[in-house]
Amino acid sequence: MKPASFEYFSPTTISEALDLLSQFGTTARALAGGQSLVPMMNFRLARPSHLIDLNRIPELSYVTVENGELRIGAMTRQREIERSAAVLEGWPLLKEATGYIGHVQIRNRGTVGGSLAHAYPASELPVAMCALDAVFVLRSQRGERLLKARELFVGPMTTVLEPEELLIEIRVPPLPARTGWAFQEISRRFGDFALMAVACLLTLDGAGAIQKASLAFTDSTPVRPESAEQRLVGKRPDRDLFSEVGRLAAAALNPDTDVHASAEYRREIAGVLARRALQQAAERAASFT
Ligand SMILES: Cc1cc2nc3c(=O)[nH]c(=O)nc-3n(C[C@H](O)[C@H](O)[C@H](O)COP(=O)(O)OP(=O)(O)OC[C@H]3O[C@@H](n4cnc5c(N)ncnc54)[C@H](O)[C@@H]3O)c2cc1C
């Protein structure tokens, strides 16, 4: 299939891109890495009349650390995150999660912002950003707004982004001392989309008890089962506790049945993955003490 005809624009600044999005409204679409949008256009599942290419806007591509916070420009390629020394040192969960996205060719082209804006339910970056309590910077000609990661996603491939709005930057707060991490995923073959994935962070206090826990799962939209997280706080890391919390977290999910797996199977592996992730995160956290 070939895409329906469209007019192509190649702005070189954010402000030019926002002008174009404001001018064309719902008939326009931003083009990032094109790894999801172009196939959708070829299948005519997306038919934008105006394509606003963000690839020639250098101010959208960077990885920096400011006041201890990680800042990622929306057009940063996924592979850059995977190879960034700053990410490895301060936010290893992000590196680990990114390594599960498709294959290296996809990550060379696909962008961090594109993956988040696309909001595909089985995607790794949305759950990693939710576990990390990231903040997203959205901008339009009308101004800028900051959203907590979980506020962006409202359903499968649906976000609160307005047609004239761009995701500009992702801000990830620093991790507390003695925080371990883990990203666990099951897919049919290496590089396939996840049947289920979980991102996990666990912070231990000086006495070795759990001070803070984050668990985020791929579901129709990323889910953080708070009662499961709270069950961990104040307790010492323990395999039985992790199994119990895994079951509790899995019960809070509402996975789909599709050609790849049933909802029951997805819920079952969510519990197993959560237990494994908690165990691994606890071991990593303990190695800092
Ligand atoms: C074979 C294959 C395997 C893949 N496997 C995986 C996988 O395992 N896990 C995974 O997570 N992904 C996977 N992907 C998808 C890949 O990660 C894409 O890169 C990602 O989903 C979209 O990013 P992109 O930069 O290509 O965005 P595009 O395809 O260019 O855009 C996607 C959507 O986001 C919008 N958009 C892009 N940037 C912005 C912005 N800054 N502000 C507002 N809207 C924006 C676009 O308008 C479009 O609607 C795979 C893709 C392929 C082709």
**Helical stretch tally:** 12
Q: Roughly how many Å is the radius of gyration?
A: 19 Å
Compressed to H and E, one letter per element, the order equals EHEHEEEHHHHHHEEHEEEEEEHHH
Categorize the overall geometry.
globular
Average pLDDT reading: 97
Q: What percent of the residues sit in helical stretches (DSSP H or I)?
A: 25-40%
Our estimate of the beta-strand percent is 15-25%
Architecture of the largest domain, according to CATH? Answer: 2-Layer Sandwich
Reported by name, the CATH topology of the largest domain is Uridine Diphospho-n-acetylenolpyruvylglucosamine Reductase, domain 3
Distance between the termini: 57 Å
How would you describe the overall organization of this protein?
The chain is 36% helix and 24% strand. By secondary structure, the chain is an alpha+beta fold. The protein folds into three domains: 7-53, Uridine Diphospho-n-acetylenolpyruvylglucosamine Reductase, domain 2 (2-Layer Sandwich), CATH 3.30.43.10; 58-172, Uridine Diphospho-n-acetylenolpyruvylglucosamine Reductase, domain 3, CATH 3.30.465.10; 179-286, CO dehydrogenase flavoprotein, C-terminal domain (Enolase-like, domain 1). The strands form four sheets. A five-stranded antiparallel β-sheet has the order 4-5-10-6-7. Strands 1-3-2 form a three-stranded parallel β-sheet, covered by helices on one side. The mean pLDDT is 97.
Which features characterize this protein?
single chain, 289 residues, alpha+beta, Uridine Diphospho-n-acetylenolpyruvylglucosamine Reductase, domain 2, Uridine Diphospho-n-acetylenolpyruvylglucosamine Reductase, domain 3, Enolase-like, domain 1, 3 domains, 5-stranded antiparallel sheet, 3-stranded parallel sheet, 36% helix, 24% strand, globular, binds flavin-adenine dinucleotide
